[in-house]
Specification:
This protein is an all-alpha fold. It has helices spanning about 5-10, 10-25, 40-45, 50-65, 70-80, 90-110, 125-130, 140-155, 165-190. It contains 9 helices and no strands. α2 packs parallel to α6 (about 90-110), α2 (about 10-25) runs antiparallel to α8 and α2 runs parallel beside α9. The longest helix is centred in the C-terminal third of the chain and has 30 residues, at about 165-190. The radius of gyration is 16 Å and the shape is globular. The protein starts with a helix and ends with a helix. The relative contact order is 0.17.
């Protein structure tokens, strides 16, 4: 299945966890010693969405206290601010879709440090999310693969006894992706410095 098909078919919890994971991977290291993991309250969202609004408020407050390291941190803050307070599939699907696209855009930015985001008229990220990753760089391809894996894991385990293990695996995949992106950002900064 393509990423867009997985987003269209996922339940509310899978969408929420997937969206949070996308934002988490993009979040740069804090510059001021503030909360290193401001999105943590949202990771343990219940399948029925109980406490979603309170957890969302805690994550937003933690993000507001955090000094933005760069424009990516500000984009993550804005995406979190756009998160729906209503824990139902339709608004969560729209939010997860936007977070997915943001994560891919951030990865594409570091795939093409010179700023060349493509010469053809078609939106390469839209094609990529629809199942045609040809011409995508290694960071975008890796991010696409992570997003697909996370949604597959969560959707497959939804409502089963393996739900907790699936959540743990999704967090592990997201942490791995965050490390990869931060390493690339650091390497590129050293190259410019």
């Amino acid at each position: 299945m393509s990423l867009l098909e997985l987003i269209a078919a996922a339940d509310g919890r899978s969408l929420a966890v997937s969206a949070v994971a996308c934002l988490d991977r993009c979040l740069p290291r804090p510059v001021d010693g503030s909360e290193p993991d401001p999105l943590r309250p949202l990771r343990a969202v219940r399948a029925d969405g109980r406490e979603w609004d309170a957890r969302l408020g805690a994550a937003r407050a933690a993000m507001e206290e955090r000094e933005p390291a760069d424009d990516v941190a500000e984009q993550v803050r804005q995406a979190l601010a756009a998160a729906p307070g209503d824990f139902s599939a339709a608004p969560l699907r729209e939010w997860a879709d936007a977070c997915s696209l943001l994560a891919l855009e951030v990865h594409r930015r570091f795939d093409t440090p010179g700023g060349d985001l493509g010469v053809d008229g078609a939106d390469p990220l839209r094609r990529c999310r629809a199942g045609d990753p040809d011409g995508s760089g290694p960071l975008v391809t890796g991010e696409l693969r992570r997003q697909i894996q996370i949604l597959e894991i969560l959707t497959e385990a939804a409502g089963t006894a393996g739900d907790g293990a699936a959540l743990r695996r999704a967090v592990d995949l997201s942490t791995e992706g965050r490390r990869v992106l931060r390493a690339v950002v650091s390497r590129q900064a050293r190259g410019r410095g």
